[in-house]
Design brief:
By secondary structure, the chain is an alpha/beta fold. Helices cover 37% and strands 22% of the residues. Strands 1, 2, 3, 4, 5, 6, 7, 8, 9 and 10 form a ten-stranded mixed beta sheet that branches. It is globular, with a radius of gyration of 24 Å.
């Protein structure tokens, strides 16, 4: 009899504790979906890492083209890529790949990344970059090829400069030591490495003139941009440059409910994104939207 009473008390206590637990049972027993992602955009990455509904695994696989290849092959689920490379890849127009990457789908246009052209203290690139040591970009950045395209648009062949690719922090460090003459940093202003470079005496140069029109004739998704005065320390005048939109893209066969929830969480739970992504421009990707993302945008419009 005492054993029966004790068992009843244990069962009653367990039921009471379960009833008092505010967490839904599914949250305790259902594992979070794992999303494999490739990006070097720290704000975007931190937003997804902080989403409670998903477990994000970061994969560093290189620039936009390499990320899009990984999406096409199914080895990642999400990636941040530049609009120009994404458009070329989807339509089979990349230089070394004639097969369209038809498994790519868009989720959101994130923001525009500006090209920052930095010259080391004391350097005088006014006569051109021939013979100079130039960091053309970040080997795992969004658009590794853009720096080389920019130099080519100035009528300078790759063989006429000593070009290399370095992480942005390393590039700035070597710039300030005088080990390189110029460096290209691509990203949404303000960029911390650019701030450090300017504090160290480097200069932020204008990118303007007929070479930009020449470049845009081949890559029309590149656009002119203006970095407003005061964006960086000691920047008393606006800086003319070029930029390209960054896109959040995914695989076409990714589950629609998952993509819907990713899109919703990105816009509704991303605390750091209020000034990063314009919700009205977000659906304007250069490839077809994933049905899950399209559903979110339709519902948002209906609820306005």
């Amino acid at each position: 009899m005492w054993r029966t009473i004790a068992a009843a008390l244990v069962l009653s206590t367990a039921i009471t504790l379960s009833a008092c637990d505010p967490r839904p049972a599914a949250n305790r027993s259902t594992p979070r979906p794992i999303v494999r992602m490739s990006t070097s955009e720290t704000t975007v990455l931190s937003t997804f890492l902080n989403l409670r509904e998903f477990s994000v695994q970061l994969t560093d696989i290189g620039d936009s083209e390499k990320r899009l290849i990984a999406l096409q092959q199914g080895s990642v689920d999400l990636a941040v890529a530049t609009a120009d490379v994404t458009y070329l890849a989807f339509n089979g127009l990349l230089a070394d790949r004639s097969q369209p990457m038809d498994k790519l789908r868009g989720i959101a246009l994130l923001h525009s990344a500006a090209v920052h052209l930095l010259a080391r203290p004391g350097a005088n690139p006014g006569r051109g970059f021939r013979g100079m040591r130039v960091v053309l970009g970040n080997p795992v950045g969004a658009n590794e090829a853009l720096g080389e395209r920019l130099i080519n648009s100035m009528g300078i062949a790759r063989s006429e400069i000593r070009g290399e690719f370095l992480p942005r922090g390393v590039a700035v460090e070597r710039l300030l030591k005088g080990e390189v003459d110029a460096a290209i940093v691509i990203g949404r202003p303000p960029q911390d490495p650019v701030v450090r470079a300017l504090h160290g005496g480097a200069r932020l140069l204008d990118i303007d003139g007929p070479e930009i029109d020449h470049l845009r004739s081949y890559y029309p998704l590149l656009g002119r941009m203006l970095i407003p005065r005061g964006t960086y320390p000691g920047q008393d005048v606006p800086v003319h440059t070029i930029g390209v939109d960054l896109l959040l893209v995914c695989r076409a066969d990714l589950d629609s409910k998952l993509v819907y929830e990713l899109t919703r969480a990105y816009f509704e739970e991303g605390e750091n994104l209020r000034n990063e992504t314009d919700p009205q421009r977000a659906p304007a990707v250069v490839i077809p939207l994933h049905p899950g993302a399209a559903r979110y945008y339709r519902e948002r419009e209906v609820s306005r």
